[in-house]
Amino acid sequence: MINLAILISGRGSNMEAILKSVKKNKMLVNPAVVISNKPDAKGIKLAQKLGVQTHVIESRGIKGANWDYDKKIVAVLEKSGVTPKNGLVCLAGFMRILSPEFIRYFKGRIMNIHPAILPSFPGLHSQRQAVEYGVKYSGCTVHFVDEGVDTGPIIIQDIVKVNDNDTEETLSKRILRKEHQIYPTAIRLFCEGKIMVKGRKTVRV
Ligand code: GAR
Question: Most buried residue, 1, 61, 139, 185, by CB count within 10 Å?
Fold first, then answer.
């Protein structure tokens, strides 16, 4: 059984979708812990309501990738049974860059959701970038995390049509609905051993 950790910074709607899907679909995964870098993240209470252990590891004043900060995350993960052997770490709106040391430690076991069709619009404010650029389709991507920003092997993508009158808010809402579908699916595939990374690609096995 895979032990799952979800890292958040705010609202936690992807975390909620994942936890609800784990329960509903009896997924082969144990939601071990939710970690937030912000003490006021709405998702913390939501996780507690859903019966999952929570931890706040405050990151105020710690800018950029920082292994000393990430070591505190590793300590909580290990205590919760989330290890490089049996763990999966899912970033769900976790607005920090992880250090290369952390990424190497959990190599192949960290996923992220991004609100755009990567490699388009990486980084911040992807939905605004999509509206301003004038693309006709956008969407979301679940990918494994490597040492770049939003560059790791893609697991699942889904698209939404961008309308002429879309704003950052309206597009974000439609993309979010898709995010809530593809993230649980990616986790299920991983936990059932149905995907593996081959070079730059994630392939079905
Ligand atoms: C989601 O839209 C997620 O894709 C995005 O933050 C939001 C978090 O919402 N992540 C990024 O932009 C990462 N670069 P949530 O807290 O309700 O899941």
Answer: 139
Give CA–CA dist 144/167, Å, rounded.
Answer: 29
Instruction: Report the nearest-CA residue for atom 7 of ligand 1.
Output: 93
Comma-separated ranges of CATH 3.40.50.170 domains in the chain: 1-107, 112-205
**The architecture CATH gives domain 112-205:** 3-Layer(aba) Sandwich (3.40)
- Residue 202: the pLDDT is 98
Nearest to 141 by CA among 153, 130, 125, 133: 153
Pocket residues: Cβ below 6 A from ligand 1: 8, 10-14, 43, 92-93, 113-115, 176, 179
| 151-165 pLDDT tens trace | 999 999 999 999 999
Q: Of all protein residues, whose CA lies closest to atom 8 belonging to ligand 1?
A: 93
Residue 75 CB: number of other CB atoms within 10 A?
12
